[in-house]
């Protein structure tokens, strides 16, 4: 991976953004530190000067000018003091103090002046001594200056500034390095995912993403991708099973159809024989078409795309319509038909597919219940944790509990029912429709017979 | 799916599993004899827009043999031109056409104010596809593969509707059968017949399509508003019950079974 690719990665951009924000906050902190340290020294200078002035003012009040001069002389004599004093005549001739000349600077309205000390000893770095002072005019025209050499302060401030600058530089360096490291690490893992994906796309379908068990987002992503791949594999296996079943269940009647036509071509002589053969061929083709459209309906329900067009469906209205449609057929078959509508539940769904599912259940009930039996179409409202439910019960032979799972599979028909018409897709479609609606397909004993129920999930409050 | 498309939605013909599905001429039939096999007695002008040459030839041949005048366009552009320049009774449009697809053709025609009934043919049979076809201006929707008898019945029902559409009646008459749509009463030869609500709607649909073959799926779609094929003979039982009430006490039957296709009400 060439290095400039790093610059385009999301992680690097995030790292950069983070670095920027981090720098900004560090800068704010450094400014605060500077203000608290260097600023504190500066304020301290001013406070020291103010304290000196307070002391001198006390002396002057008690002992007038001579006292003042005496104190100034005494204090100036303290070796290596950084406090500056000067008492001068009205013509600025120095009388006492540790400055040789009255500085040539104009005071600001509060009496503060800043100046360079002319006769200061030479500094090793060649810098000059700067000072900050307050000037007063005493009664009689005498002048007083109290100040402090600020060179040390300035040195300190410079030192603080330099340290802060270094700190800043270090932050940038460490932050950038960290960002690169982190994004490289993340990119490495994403790279691994991409590599696996490419392998899978090029045919290694059993490959799965490595999961580091850290539980972070990338791990979740890898886990979800793996779950998705498992799902796809599951669907593909299902698809293969269907293809096999379709191959078997369509090829058999197609072969029958073809050989019958072939035999007709060889053997049939009269027009009636031809006609009969063609009739049979057409009904065989119609059976095939029936299987085909049932398979398509199942595929449509299983694709789940129809959930977008779901509407409110009244289960009781649906049951009434289906009862209306099937009651005469049931009576014709010598069966009792009971519509047992206990509630008026509304579910979200596709009316047509639900109707088709109920029709399939009723078709089965009518087909397998011996005459004198009874078919019940019931609707129950939600009760407790159980959602609304629509069920079809019959008094036929039922389905043994062990085989209930298998009859939902495509093309599966119980041995006992092989002789009756049907393609083994009816319950598969009901199951697919149930799953499309998030409903559960339940099969229970009706003692005797079978109850098949679609139990819908509970709907939230409207 | 309910409501909005009631009464005009089509479809589900793929598995129209009647055991004797038939194509046409001189086929064995039940009921009375001298009329043509499929009961529509006025020739219609039909345009078939279908790109598959074999399917088109099959359609054109079948429709011609049923007594109609048929034109064929092999793509959407030609179809649009022909439909715009000639006066057809029914358009049979394949949904997927090269160049301009069937949906667009019908949308353009409807946009230009053409009211000709359209039957969509499509290999796309899902509920959503059907809704899209009807929304684009189709009047009926038949999924491939279909039985020709189903297609013919639907085409003739559409052509019929065009001629009857303008008249809003409160009374229907077929021979000695009389239906009062407001009072919900039915009489045959002056004798009142009591019908259940569903039987009434069934008879109403048959009477509105007098002389036409109506298939089981057409009845299920238009009377019950469902678009699937019940495996058992539910529709036959309903018709048998209606027939009991309409025909039993009278010398001549009015509801005829057309083998391999459906039913037909005739005076």
From TrEMBL, chain A:
Residues 245-460 form the Histidine kinase domain. It catalyses: ATP + protein L-histidine = ADP + protein N-phospho-L-histidine. CDD domains: HAMP, HATPase, HisKA. Coiled coil: none annotated. It comes from the Bacteria. Keywords: Kinase, Membrane, Phosphoprotein, Transferase, Transmembrane, Transmembrane helix, Two-component regulatory system. Its EC number is 2.7.13.3. It is an enzyme of class 2 (transferase). One of its GO terms (cellular component) is plasma membrane. This is histidine kinase. It is found in: Membrane. Residues 184-237 form the HAMP domain. InterPro entries: HAMP_dom, HATPase_C_sf, HATPase_dom, His_kinase_dom, HisK_dim/P_dom, HisK_dim/P_sf, Sig_transdc_His_kin-like_C, TCS_sensor_his_kinase. The chain crosses the membrane at residues 15-36, 160-182. GO terms for molecular function: phosphorelay sensor kinase activity.
TrEMBL record, chain B:
Residues 169-267 form the OmpR/PhoB-type domain. Residues 1-25 have a biased composition (Gly residues). Residues 169-267 bind DNA. GO terms for molecular function: phosphorelay response regulator activity; transcription cis-regulatory region binding. Residues 45-159 form the Response regulatory domain. InterPro entries: CheY-like_superfamily (IPR011006), OmpR/PhoB-type_DNA-bd (IPR001867), Sig_transdc_resp-reg_receiver (IPR001789), WalR-like (IPR039420), WH-like_DNA-bd_sf (IPR036388). GO terms for biological process: regulation of DNA-templated transcription. The keyword Phosphoprotein applies. It comes from Skermanella aerolata. CDD domains: REC_OmpR_CusR-like, trans_reg_C. Gene3D superfamilies: 3.40.50.2300, 6.10.250.690, Winged helix-like DNA-binding domain superfamily/Winged helix DNA-binding domain. GO terms for cellular component: cytosol; protein-DNA complex. This is DNA-binding response regulator. SMART domains: REC (SM00448), Trans_reg_C (SM00862). Pfam families: Response_reg, Trans_reg_C.
């Amino acid at each position: 991976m060439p290095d400039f690719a790093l610059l385009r990665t999301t992680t690097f951009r995030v790292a950069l953004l983070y670095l920027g924000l981090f720098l900004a906050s560090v800068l704010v902190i450094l400014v605060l530190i500077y203000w608290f340290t260097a600023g504190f020294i500066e304020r301290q200078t001013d406070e020291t000067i103010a304290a000196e002035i307070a002391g001198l003012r006390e002396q002057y009040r008690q002992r007038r000018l001579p006292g003042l001069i005496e104190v100034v002389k005494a204090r100036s004599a303290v070796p290596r003091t950084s406090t500056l004093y000067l008492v001068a005549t009205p013509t600025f001739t120095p009388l006492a103090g540790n400055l040789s000349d009255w500085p040539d600077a104009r005071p600001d309205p509060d009496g503060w002046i800043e100046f360079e000390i002319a006769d200061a000893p030479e500094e090793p770095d060649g810098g000059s001594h700067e000072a900050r002072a307050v000037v007063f005019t005493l009664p009689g025209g005498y002048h007083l200056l109290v100040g402090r050499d600020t060179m040390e302060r300035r040195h300190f401030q410079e030192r603080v500034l330099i340290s802060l600058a270094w700190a800043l530089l270090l932050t940038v360096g460490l932050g950038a390095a960290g960002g690169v490291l982190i994004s490289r690490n993340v990119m490495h893992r994403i790279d691994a995912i991409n590599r696996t994906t490419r392998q899978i796309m090029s045919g290694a379908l059993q490959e799965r993403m490595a999961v580091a068990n850290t539980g972070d987002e990338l791990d979740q992503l890898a886990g979800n991708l793996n779950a998705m791949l498992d799902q796809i594999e599951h669907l593909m296996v299902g698809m293969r099973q269907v293809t096999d079943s379709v191959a078997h269940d369509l090829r058999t009647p197609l072969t029958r159809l073809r050989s019958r036509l072939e035999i007709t071509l060889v053997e049939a002589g009269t027009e009636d024989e031809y006609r009969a053969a063609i009739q049979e061929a057409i009904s065989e083709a119609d059976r095939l078409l029936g299987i085909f459209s049932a398979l398509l309906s199942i595929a449509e329900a299983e694709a789940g795309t129809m959930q977008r067009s779901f509407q409110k469906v009244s289960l009781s209205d649906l049951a009434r319509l289906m009862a209306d449609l099937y009651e005469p057929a049931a009576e014709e078959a010598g069966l009792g038909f009971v519509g047992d509508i206990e509630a008026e539940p509304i579910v979200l769904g596709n009316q047509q597919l639900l109707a088709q599912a109920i029709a399939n259940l009723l078709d089965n009930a009518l087909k397998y219940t011996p005459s004198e039996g009874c078919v019940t179409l019931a609707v129950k409202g939600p009760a407790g944790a159980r959602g609304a439910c629509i069920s079809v019960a019959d008094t036929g032979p039922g389905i043994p509990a062990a085989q209930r799972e298998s009859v939902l599979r495509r093309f599966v028909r119980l041995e006992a029912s092989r002789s009756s018409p049907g393609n083994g897709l009816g319950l598969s479609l009901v199951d697919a429709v149930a799953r499309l609606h998030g409903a559960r397909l339940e099969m229970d004993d009706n003692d005797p017979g079978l109850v098949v129920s679609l139990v819908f999930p509970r709907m939230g409050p409207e | 799916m309910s409501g909005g498309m009631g009464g005009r939605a089509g479809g589900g013909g793929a598995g129209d599993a009647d055991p004797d599905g038939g194509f046409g001429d001189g086929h064995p039939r039940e009921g009375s004899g001298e009329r043509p096999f499929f009961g529509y007695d006025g020739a219609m002008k039909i345009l078939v827009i279908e790109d598959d040459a074999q399917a088109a030839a099959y359609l054109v041949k079948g429709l011609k043999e049923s007594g109609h005048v048929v034109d064929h366009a092999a793509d959407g552009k030609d179809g649009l031109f022909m439909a715009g320049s000639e006066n057809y009774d029914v358009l049979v449009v394949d949904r997927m056409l090269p160049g301009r697809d069937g949906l667009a053709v019908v949308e353009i025609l409807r946009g230009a104010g053409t009211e000709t009934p359209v039957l969509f043919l499509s290999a796309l049979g899902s509920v959503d596809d059907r809704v899209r076809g009807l929304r684009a201006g189709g009047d009926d929707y038949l999924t491939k593969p279909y039985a020709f008898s189903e297609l013919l019945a639907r085409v003739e029902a559409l052509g019929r509707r065009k001629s009857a559409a303008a008249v809003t009646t409160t009374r229907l008459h077929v021979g000695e059968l009389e239906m009062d749509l407001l009072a919900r009463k039915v009489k045959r030869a002056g004798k009142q017949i009591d019908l259940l609500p569903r039987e009434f709607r069934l008879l109403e649909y048959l009477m509105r399509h007098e002389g036409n073959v109506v298939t089981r799926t057409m009845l299920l779609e238009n009377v019950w508003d469902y678009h699937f094929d019940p495996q058992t003979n539910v529709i036959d039982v309903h018709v048998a019950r209606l027939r009991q009430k309409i025909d039993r006490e009278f010398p001549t039957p009015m509801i005829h079974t057309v083998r391999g296709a459906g039913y037909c009400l005739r005076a």
